Amino acid sequence: MKKFFCGCLAFLCLFAFSCKLEENDSDSKFGSVSISLAKPAAESAEKKSSRALYIPEITEATVTICGYGMEDVEKSVKVELGKGSVSFDKIPVGKNRVVKVQAEYTLNNALSKLDGVVIYAATDINSGENSVSVNWATSAVGAVYYNLIKENYDISNLEKSSVESFIPSSTHAALVNTKQIALDIKNGATPPQTLEKYKLKSGKITFCTDKAYSDVKVQICDPVSLALTGTTGETQTIENVAPGTWNFYLIKDNSIFYKIDSVAVKEDEPVDLGTILLGSVKIGSKHPASGKYSPVD
User: Angle, nearest 10°, between helix axes 136-150 and 178-186?
Assistant: First the structure.
C-alpha cells in the first residue's frame, strides 16, 4: 500500500505544522496541510510578539517521519516568509510514528540547522484518514518517542499517557530533558514522585553596546526567552535562555542589523558576548569578543 504525505508549514517562535492524510480510490495516501501561526492563548500579545523568530532568515526546513521498524523518511522544503510545502510517499501504517520539523537558515552560502528550532509530534498512521498537528505543545512527548526510536526501543505499545507521566507540567518543551526521560523509560524506570530531575535549567546572555539605541530589538533565537527593546549602552541581560545553540540578533527597521551565529548556551551558565561597537562597525567586520563576522546584509 502506498502512502502519501504532504504539508506546508509556517514558522514563528511558536510555529505549527499540521497535516491531514487521506485515502483515495486507488488505495494511496494523500495529504493536505493547513497552517496557522498558532500561539498559546494564555500568553499576552506582547509576549507572543517578543518570542517571534526572525522569519525571513529561515530559508529551508527538513521534515522527517520515523518510527520503530521503519526507515526514516526525510525531505527538505523551501521556506519563504515562513511558508513552504513538502510531500512524502510510502509511509508505513503503524503506532507512534514521529514527525520532526527542523528549521534551517543560510550561513556562509550553506544551509545550517537552527539547532533548537525543531518540533516533534507522535501520531498513529492508520489505513484511511489521519491527521496530526506539530507544535511546541506536542514536542516534549514527540521528542521522547524520537529519542526512544534512536535507542532502538520498541515504542509500538508505549502509551502517550505513560510518556506524559514523566514530563514536568507547565514546562516548555525546550526545557524538558527528553533524552533522560527516554533513557529512563528504556531502562524500565517509573516516574519519580518529583519530576524536577527532568527540568533543564535555563542560561542567560549578557552584552553591552557602545551607546543606547532605542530603535533596536535584541533577541536570542530560542523559544523560551523574551526579546529586549532597545539597548542602554550598559550591560544588559537576556534571561531564561533554553540550553542549546542559538543565533543572537539585533533587529532594526525589520531587518538584521547585527548578528552572531551559533551562540552556545549551557544549563545554568551565563554567556558574555562582550561589548558590541555598533557605532563603528561595518558590514563584514568582526565582533570584538566572538570573532564572528557581523552585521549581515
Answer: 50
Q: How far is residue 102 from each of residues 63, 74, 77, 251, 281, measured CA to CA in Å? A: 6, 11, 10, 23, 32
pLDDT at 43: 53
Asked if 290 contacts 273 with a C-beta cutoff of 8 angstroms, the reply is yes
pLDDT tens figures, 282-292: 433 444 444 44
Question: What pTM was computed for the model?
Answer: 0.80
β-strands 270-276, 203-209 pairing: parallel
User: How many C-beta neighbours within 10 Å does residue 23 have?
Assistant: 17
Q: Kindly state the cell numbers that stand for 109.
A: 552560502
Task: Please say whether the beta carbons of 124 and 95 come within 8 A.
Answer: yes
Banded pLDDT at 83 (limits 50, 70, 90) = low
- What's the first-to-final CA gap in the chain, in angstroms? 48
**Pairing between strand 4-10 and 212-220?**
unpaired
Q: How far apart are CA 251 and CA 216, in angstroms?
A: 6
Write the CB contacts of 41 (distance below 8 Å, at least 6 apart in sequence).
none
Residue 8: burial class (beta carbons within 10 Å; 0-12, 13-18, 19+): middle
